[in-house]
Design goal:
The protein is mostly helical. It has a domain of 72 residues. The protein is built from 17 helices and no strands. Helix 2 runs parallel beside helix 4, helix 4 packs parallel to helix 6 and helix 8 runs antiparallel to helix 9. The radius of gyration is 24 Å and the shape is globular. The termini are far apart.
């Protein structure tokens, strides 16, 4: 049964819907309408959030069941991804299943399903779609095919207690990483994906070697720089960690890929503090100001409680030990330690 989609937020959306009664909604148009609901789902008003979720579900069902589904594979991918960003994996998979009925060999749609299907209990479908994906020549695969396949195999690995199966999964993951590098040699994700596998296997030496290889082979590799700087910080190699954090920030300015710059500034502030303490000399005013600046920038982007609490504790220690007050211009940091 087709649900009525109610769009009350704007007159413009209402006009689109009225016209849609006579014609089928193109996938791209449906996604545009859905953005209103996706924003409301994050509302603090529970009634508003639930109403938006209900309307979004009705919109998705309308798209799935309409006679004509105008749009290409990218439109289905974009719609599914936007919905999955709100952790609505069931709805996302509903869209992907419909999209795959039209584009059954599309790499991104198959990979998306592996990524989201494991998060909403559709493991049997994931198994079927992985078989389909595996039979498609790797030369057609993009980064999602490799990365999300490894994530799916990792999901299976973490739930297996069979040594034989674990060996098979390990071999399959490493084989995918090799194909990833061969077919997409300039994609940073190929290095990060392989590093993830070694981390899963508790092979820290190999993980570090892959990350260093990425930084050597690629001109821009912010994610690998961040990952390696984290490893180095944890084992106390602060000088090199700081160098890599600075490279990560430079690289991040030159790429469109998503990098957690807030975390990089957080780590840079802690690294500078650790270096100052390691030197065994009083922290200079200049160093204290640099650390305050790094942490203030981080606070504007990094809101996870564990990191915020660490920044608060470290800042209070720095103020007390250095005797250098936090400048007024660092509003976020001043507010944090009040």
């Amino acid at each position: 049964m087709e649900h009525e989609v109610i769009i009350a937020s704007t007159d413009e959306n209402s006009t689109v819907l009225e016209e849609a009664e006579a014609i089928c909604l193109p996938i791209k148009t449906a996604n545009t309408i859905a953005q209103t609901y996706l924003e409301s789902i994050s509302s603090d008003d529970l009634y508003e959030a639930e109403a938006a979720l209900k309307d979004l579900g009705a919109l998705v069902q309308r798209v799935i069941h309409q006679a004509v589904k105008a749009g290409d594979a990218d439109d289905w991918h974009n719609f599914a991804v936007d919905i999955a960003r709100k952790d609505l994996y069931d709805l996302s998979c509903d869209l992907l299943e419909c999209g795959l009925s039209i584009y059954p060999k599309n790499i991104d749609l198959l990979a998306d399903y592996l990524q989201y299907g494991t998060s909403c209990g559709r493991t049997e479908n994931c198994k079927s779609f992985y078989k389909v994906l595996s039979k498609i020549p790797k030369i057609r695969w993009g980064w999602r095919g490799y990365s999300f396949s490894v994530s799916y195999l990792t999901y299976l690995w973490e739930r297996s207690d069979s040594e034989k199966e674990l060996e098979k999964l390990q071999g399959e993951m490493l084989s995918l990483a090799t194909a990833f590098r061969k077919n997409l040699p300039f994609d940073e994700e190929s290095y990060r994906c392989e590093a993830d596998i070694y981390k899963l296997l508790h092979k820290k030496k190999e993980e570090e070697e892959v990350l260093r290889l990425a930084l050597n082979d690629l001109k821009i590799a912010p994610k690998c720089a961040l990952r390696l700087s984290d490893l180095l910080f944890d084992r106390g190699d602060y000088e090199e960690a700081l160098t890599l954090i600075q490279r990560g920030l430079r690289d991040a300015m030159q790429t469109q890929s998503s990098v957690n710059e807030g975390y990089l500034y957080y780590l840079m502030g802690l690294t500078k503090m650790a270096l100052a303490q390691q030197a065994g000399t009083p922290i200079s005013e200049e160093t204290a100001y640099e650390i305050y600046a790094d942490l203030d920038i981080s606070l504007r982007q990094e809101h996870r409680a564990a990191y915020v609490n660490t920044m608060k504790a470290k800042t209070i220690v720095l103020v007390n030990k250095s005797g250098v007050p936090i400048p007024e211009k660092y509003e976020e940091l001043n507010y944090l330690v009040q």
